[in-house]
Amino acid sequence: MNSQYGASQQTVVRKQASKMEAAKAVRNRKVDPEVETMRGAAPEMDLPTQRASAIFSSPETETPDVRLPTETYGDFMGETPLVELTQLVRSFKNPNVRVFAKVEYFNPSLSIKDRIVMNIFNEAEADGRLKPGMTVVAASSGNTGASCAMVCAMRGYPCIITTSPKCSAEKMNAIRAYGAKLVVSPPGAKEGSPDHYMEIARLLAEENAEKYFDVNQYDTQSNPAGHYKTLGPELIEQTSGSITHFVAAGSTGGTISGVGRYLKERKPDVKVVLADPVGSVFTNYFRTGKLGTPGKFLVEGVGKGSIPGAMDMGLIDEVFPVSDEQAFSMCHALARTEGICAGGSAGLNVFAALELAANCEDDAVICTVMPDCGPKNLSKVYNEAWLEENGLKCSPDQVAVCRNPGTPPVSPEARLRLADEGLLPENASSFSVAKATRQIAGCDACLYKDLVGSTPLIDITSVAGKLGHPDTRIYAKVEYFNPSFSIKDRMVAYVLDKAEREGRLRPGMTVVAASSGNTGASCAMMCAMRGYPCIITTSPKCSQEKIQNIRAYGAELRISPSGVAESDPRSYMSMAAALARDEPEKYYDFDQYNIKENAEAYYYGLGPEIYEQTKGRVTAFVAGGSTGGTVSGTGRFLKEQNSEIRAILADPKGSVFAGFFKTGSCPAPEKFLIEGVGKQNIPGSFDTSVVDEVITRTDQEAVDMCHKLSRTTGACGGGSSGLNVAAAVHFAEESVNPEVIVTVLCDLGAKYLSKIYNPEWLQENGLVAPPTPDVV
Membrane-spanning regions, if any (predicted)? Predict the structure, then answer.
């Protein structure tokens, strides 16, 4: 079917469907750990009778036809998961109404805007409007700017982003993290005035068209075309064509217009619904044909004071106005019930989708989008002080939602029937039973919790200098594409599942966990999903973003005093242990530092994924250690496949691990700034016998690598990611043999924008920040 976006869309759709099928196969690959444990296994890990190496089929032996993966970070645009929202309950008129959301922050720059930016760049390069040597300039409220900056980093273009003062500090720092220059318009600048951020970008490109390329997302038809080519086909495929309503907000109008046109060309009866912040002109224009006077609203990246050229209002069937309080309250409800920490625009979209669902009399499949992630909005949407300053009282109660009580207890007879049908083992947890009994007929959807693992593997060899051998390749698992944006989801999900099955964690108990941040956020998220109260204890070194992220899920946070030793009763580790020790029937101590399940989680998950994705050709695995679970479990699995594979520990200078491996005893620890790695002692969950080598890197080397990664590959990870890659690069440069090195990007840089990607913080702590490129 032809459209205004081109006649070759069938080819695009077929290619997209093929890519999605491949991605789905990898994501759905799961290893079943629910099998009998083996007697006499090594004390640090109870291995099952049927090892993961047998459960998870190994690739064939190497042949000349076996090629290593060549995907780079930008190749993972689109193909985002579709999740069903099941914990947010309304009084639906029709129980057969279902609400789904596309997790668009699983795109490379963590937002939906990657779809349009990639298409704009591709079309502009193809027709010669964007050429090497030109500078890209883009006006953006935040997400498009970050995406433009990322794509420019990948493709080597200098970049200038203009934005409004309403843009969150996190989004501004995210833009700078990719090496772009940021220009912020003065407060109160009105659309059309020379000092408004949109006009600044337009005039800059207009004055020197040969030097500057204006992305101009608000008027170019490449904007809706990006969604028409990708997001529309994905929704049709993932719902098997059963979608009845599409709900999305508009700023440029690209999402609602591109997806709306694609859906209506294939299903004319699909209803396209615009979610609009109260104060935007879209609602009034839709109802009266006049713009009216725009009002103030605080949700970023949605709404407008005029109708952009990229928006086709004729495709819209209905408009839902949503207030700031309703949008932000829905964000809190999503985090505290579904475990989804998303941005304000996601809250706005979901609120409108649920309002629509509550009033549908016919069966309906309602789909919406979650455009960006919550960690980019922690200083605002999830910050009580900011909400109060702006006169907002936001909570889950404000949107009249409640937790779905879930699947009733399953009888022993029902469990046996499900087991006979091969749906679950007899001793499966109630959480697994609920999943097995759910049927998502006709939709390729999942629950948010099901997105743990099956993360992309990308080629990052380009960040190395002179390789020790020219055929060496360096790969990274993008572990911040897990639900809570960190690798720790693998371990937390595994540990809680096993504790539930064995009866150590029961309804009514409170989960308590000591964490430097990421495990705490993951525990808080999983407890929100499962209905457990949660207490997280942490150190004052934990970044402000991680602290706010933990609180966003509704967990209680307790911070230990500065400078206390880990053995001190006031330390965050001792605080957590004391609660569970004093009241074991009330508190379940997660205790990631001493449990064997920590390493088991990676043995069953990360290890098999790496072996499969590298076609069995991996020669070295590099990862930092705090609990030691990642390197222990992954290293053990890989060595069972090939004893020549090396497990390498990346260690920050100042941690005791390097000294322990040299002398057999722990030296006095020194101060280091990188979070989530290193330690003052050897945790019980760390099987040190797996490690072949330790590579020490300084704080500065880790920070430098973080910035190099984001400014060249587009992958923006946290400090531990920089440490891991710096160690992997060192190994690659020193080894004279051809190597296939795999490391992990543990968590996303958006959790460290106030530190690792903040020049002021770096300077205050004696670290050198990379210079901002002169792009003007």
Answer: none
